């Protein structure tokens, strides 16, 4: 049993739209003397909220194209750098996700991921196939899920917003309820460096619905981000003053 108290929390968020409401809610400041290597676009907001040292880490804008640095590569890099620099007791990967109505997901639902896996790393060689899927369990949080009445489902991760037929087959194999573009990468690094990680995801679009993903995602992003902001605040309030084993 892990009886360490939770003091330092790192919240990994891939989009500025998702990050700023939390920065404002927790009254965080941007780190102008960054703990990260010079030249990278990664942004750290930090401060104290109740008894917690809160760090919101956003991969920043692509230095050439100026868009959010979404996807698994940026997520894994900032997670690795954040763990080394900040030594967090807990990582929260918060963000928006697609949901599957066949698995009970609706727009603006908030999910805690029970398991995370990749759906676009297909390596059809024995054992390498399992490595490609990269199935990992999120840190178990039965008390958190029950207290906040959050839905729990399996999260699948890939680097494409749309869903190809091959991806769809892998997603079904992963038994996924929600789909994102960074969770399994964060889970991989957190597991590698032995830091508990949980995944809080808000549904912006229904992957197996009748609306185009891009249209539905953009239509719902702001409203669902507000729901995500509220959920993450409630999660942080729950974590405050608790030990890892009490989650």
Care to describe what's here?
This protein has 247 residues and is α/β, with parallel strands linked by helices. Helix content is 34%, strand content 25%. The protein has 7 helices and 10 strands. Strands 5-9-8-6-10 form a 5-stranded mixed beta barrel. α5 links the parallel β8 and β9. The protein starts with 7 loop residues before the first strand and ends in an 8-residue tail after the last helix.
Write the layout of secondary structure elements.
Layout: E1 8-12, H1 16-25, E2 29-30, E3 43-49, E4 52-58, H2 72-86, E5 90-99, E6 110-118, H3 128-133, E7 136-137, H4 142-148, E8 151-157, H5 165-173, E9 178-180, H6 183-192, E10 197-206, H7 213-239
Helix pairs in contact: 1-7, 2-6
Strand content: 25-35%
Going by helix content, strand content and strand pairing, the class is alpha/beta
Please give the share of residues in helix: 25-40%
What is the makeup of the main sheet?
Answer: 5 strands, mixed, barrel
Q: List the helices and strands in order.
A: EHEEEHEEHEHEHEHEH
- Taking strands numbered 1, 2, ... along the chain, how are they ordered across the largest sheet? 5-9-8-6-10
How many distinct beta strands? 10
Shape: globular
- Compute the CA-based radius of gyration: 17 Å
| Count of helical regions | 7
Q: Alpha-carbon distance between the termini?
A: 11 Å
Please tell me the overall pLDDT. Answer: 95
Residue stretches low in confidence (pLDDT < 50, at least 5 long) are: none
């Amino acid at each position: 049993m892990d009886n360490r108290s939770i003091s330092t929390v790192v919240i990994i968020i891939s989009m500025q739209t998702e990050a700023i409401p939390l920065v404002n809610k927790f009254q965080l400041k941007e780190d102008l003397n960054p703990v990260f290597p010079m030249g990278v676009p990664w942004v750290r907001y930090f401060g104290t909220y109740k008894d917690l040292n809160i760090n919101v880490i956003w991969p920043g804008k692509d230095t050439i194209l100026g868009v959010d640095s979404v996807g698994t590569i940026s997520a894994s890099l900032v997670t690795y750098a954040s763990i080394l620099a900040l030594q967090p007791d807990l990582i929260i990967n918060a963000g928006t996700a697609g949901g599957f109505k066949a698995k009970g997901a609706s727009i603006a639902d908030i999910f805690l991921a029970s398991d995370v896996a990749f759906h676009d790393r297909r390596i059809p060689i024995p054992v390498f196939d399992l490595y490609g899927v990269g199935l990992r369990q999120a840190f178990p949080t039965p008390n958190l899920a029950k207290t906040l009445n959050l839905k729990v489902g399996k999260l699948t991760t890939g680097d494409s917003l749309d869903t190809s037929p091959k991806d769809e087959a892998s997603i079904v194999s992963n038994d996924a309820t929600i789909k994102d573009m960074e969770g399994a990468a964060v889970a991989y690094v957190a597991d590698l460096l032995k830091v508990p990680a949980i995944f809080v995801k808000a549904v912006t679009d229904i992957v197996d619905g009748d609306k185009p993903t891009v249209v539905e995602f953009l239509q719902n992003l702001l409203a669902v981000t507000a729901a995500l902001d509220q959920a993450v605040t409630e999660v942080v309030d729950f974590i405050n003053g608790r030990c890892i084993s009490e989650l």
